[in-house]
Amino acid sequence: MKTKHLIWVVLGVILAAGLVIAGTWAMLRTVNSPAEPTTVAEATSPEATPAPVPPRPACPAGGVGGVELPCLGAEGAGDAGVDKQITVANVWAWWCGPCREELPYFEEFAQAHPEYNVVGVHADTNAGNGAALLTELGISLPSYQDADNTFAGTLGLPGVIPITVVFDGDNQIAMFPRTFTSAEQIYQAVQEAENAP
Asked: What are phi and psi of 172, to 5 degrees?
């Protein structure tokens, strides 16, 4: 009788331990999963139904950093920015929370510093959602549409966003894989990039 009881106790302990391990694994998996994607590859979804793209401002002709991309929500390219040497390109996506927070600072920076080309590069397949976010936030910056990661792939950028790249003509002079929290921070970073040896 004691042997039978001992067997049931051991089986109960093994079963309980298995449940605890399975529960812990499930909880850790949930806790360690990001609330939103942090890389472009995790966020793009070819199955997503594309939203219509509202009209947006035309992008400067010639692309950005030597990379030709279509303009988000605009037919063709404009002639704005052709005489400006320094371009500040902010890579963002509609689903990116930090991007949403910093885009207004890029708008403010562009308004305060017309000596620079300031553009966005929307790194997602859903152009409609990208244009809608810019409209919702009141952002008038021109933005290129990069549905297949051409910009980051061509320039060898890390696959995270937001990321800001500064160009002198087509030459990349700085890269900032971080979120800016003010227009002044952006200006200081661009000044450092311009003045670096």
From this structure: -70, 125
User: How crowded is residue 58: how many other Cβ atoms within 10 Å of its Cβ?
Assistant: 17
Confidence of residue 130 (pLDDT cuts 50, 70, 90): very high
Ordered by where they begin, the domains of the chain are 86-179 (3.40.30.10)
Cis peptide, bond prior to residue 50, ω within 30 of zero? no
pLDDT-derived band at 3 (thresholds 50, 70, 90) equals confident
pLDDT, position 34: 37
Label residues 112-125 b or e (16+ Cβ within 10 Å = b).
Answer: ebeebbbbbbbbbb
**Residue 130: φ, ψ to 5°:** -65, -50
pLDDT digit string, tens, across residues 150-175: 999 999 999 889 999 999 999 999 99
Burial of residue 60 (CB within 10 Å: 0-12, 13-18, 19+) is buried
* Euclidean distance between CA atoms 183 and 178, whole angstroms: 14
Gap between the Cα atoms of 72 and 122, Å rounded: 8
User: What does pTM read for this prediction?
Assistant: 0.72
DSSP state letter for 167: E
